[in-house]
Design goal:
407 residues, alpha+beta, Butyryl-CoA Dehydrogenase, subunit A, domain 2, Butyryl-CoA Dehydrogenase, subunit A, domain 3, 3 domains, seven-stranded mixed beta sheet, globular, oxidoreductase, Acyl-CoA_Oxase/DH_mid-dom_sf, AcylCoA_DH/ox_N_sf
Length: 407
């Protein structure tokens, strides 16, 4: 790809931030670089090598990593806000970063203490970028037990991160059993064949095409959470879904914020007032003021809910061995509420900005439609009606959503 990112900012030369506020400011800087040519890169749809290099150079890929290995040691509320900020500049890159954070954290969800320490040290020191081939709607990848090793074979329709990742998280089932096994494997190997078949209307730079897994060999010692081929389950193992759903929430809201900021600048500088309205500037039009007021109010409310739910998750993440089914279920209900709200608000915001930019704002060079296309594409990941159902069932009957691949 032609590197069309803003090269006037040498992020790699900047010292690493030392505070959470500093890391959020670093994310805003990355946002400014990404948004400078987001429309052009969206049209090109090229593999985002430069964009992922930017995430690495900025240090954002290691914010959840241990400080003793060069990470920032931040917690999930900050990571979610970083995803939101980056997504405001480019929704695809916000999604890639959010998925990376989940898979970086996967060792803590299911790994042994030794595996967690090893993965986090290597991932932080080497600034690994994670991808994942764990689409539950497809047939399970089959794992063959070959003594000291297991071998993965199968195909997944989606593998977000694919060619831009350093490592890929695989999940499969040992043949003739119901034993699921996660493992982190190098992405650059012949046994992983990433296909260039991601051709969707939105999130075009997420490298989410299909993958063929043909003989990926992993030693049993790297099977996440297993000792002597046995896995001891705990409630915290099931937190992958609430974590990734909050990632969705935050890059949806980030895309919506990017849409509103972009539209507002256009309204201030380009949009003309209606010739029969009696106003000299578009920013004085009552309907323009009302629309922006409504959309910003709704976005701020959705962001506040997302932030509150993220803070609530800290109790679970700080005591992974102590989390109960009840606490996990109640947290998932709150995540579901945030997901439903973020989806509705982001779709509405990204569609209605056209009402306040005017007809000229539909020019393809601006590509303001990319914001809606991005939210619309990913928000079909799982039906939002089921998220509202989780909230309704809990509030009326106390029913907790059972841990599944989507709840």
């Amino acid at each position: 790809m032609t590197d069309v990112l803003d090269s006037t900012i040498d992020i790699a030369a900047l010292p690493a931030p030392t505070t959470e506020a500093g890391w959020l400011e670093r994310a805003r800087l990355v946002r400014r670089v990404l948004e400078s040519d987001a429309a052009e890169r969206d049209r090109a749809g090229a593999t985002p090598y430069a964009e992922v290099a930017l995430l690495k150079d900025s240090g954002l890929v290691t914010v959840l990593g241990p400080p003793e290995h060069g990470g920032a040691g931040l917690e999930w509320p900050a990571a979610y806000r970083i995803v939101r900020e980056v997504a405001a500049g480019d929704g695809s890159i916000g999604q890639l970063l959010g998925y990376h954070y989940l898979w970086f954290w996967a060792a803590r969800l299911v790994g042994t203490p030794e595996q967690i320490a090893a993965v986090e040290e290597q991932a932080t020191v080497n600034r690994w970028f994670f991808g994942g081939a764990v689409n539950p709607r497809d047939a399970d990848v089959v794992i063959t037990d070959e003594g000291d090793s297991i071998v993965y074979r199968g195909r997944k329709s989606f593998s977000t991160g694919s060619k831009v990742s350093d490592v890929t998280v695989l999940e499969g089932v040992v043949e003739n059993t119901d034993t699921h096994v996660f493992a982190i494997v190098p992405s650059d190997q012949p046994a992983l064949q990433f296909h260039d078949d991601w051709d969707n209307i939105g999130q075009r730079l997420t490298e989410s095409g299909s993958v063929t897994i043909d003989g990926v060999r992993v030693p049993w010692t790297d099977a996440a959470g297993f000792r002597d081929k046995q896995f001891t389950p705990r409630v915290y193992n099931t937190l992958n879904v609430p974590v990734i759903q909050l990632v969705f929430v935050n890059f949806y809201l980030g895309i919506a914020r990017g849409a509103l900021d972009t539209a507002a600048e256009y309204t201030r500088t380009v949009t003309r007032p209606w010739l029969h309205g009696g106003h000299e500037r578009a920013v004085d039009e009552p309907y323009v003021l009302d629309t922006y007021g409504e959309l910003w109010s709704r976005l701020w409310a959705a962001e506040a809910l997302a932030d509150a739910v993220a803070v609530e998750s800290l109790t679970i993440h700080r005591d992974p061995d102590g989390v109960t089914q009840q606490a996990r279920g109640e947290h998932e209900v709150r995540v579901a509420a945030a997901k439903a709200q973020a989806t509705d608000v982001a779709l509405d915001v990204t569609a209605r900005i056209f009402e306040v930019v005017g007809a000229r704002g539909t020019t393809s060079s601006l590509a303001l439609d990319r914001f809606w296309r991005n939210v619309r594409t990913h928000s079909l990941h799982d039906p939002v009606a089921y998220k509202r159902r989780e909230v309704g069932a809990f509030t009326l009957t106390g029913e907790l959503p059972p841990p599944t691949w989507y709840s």
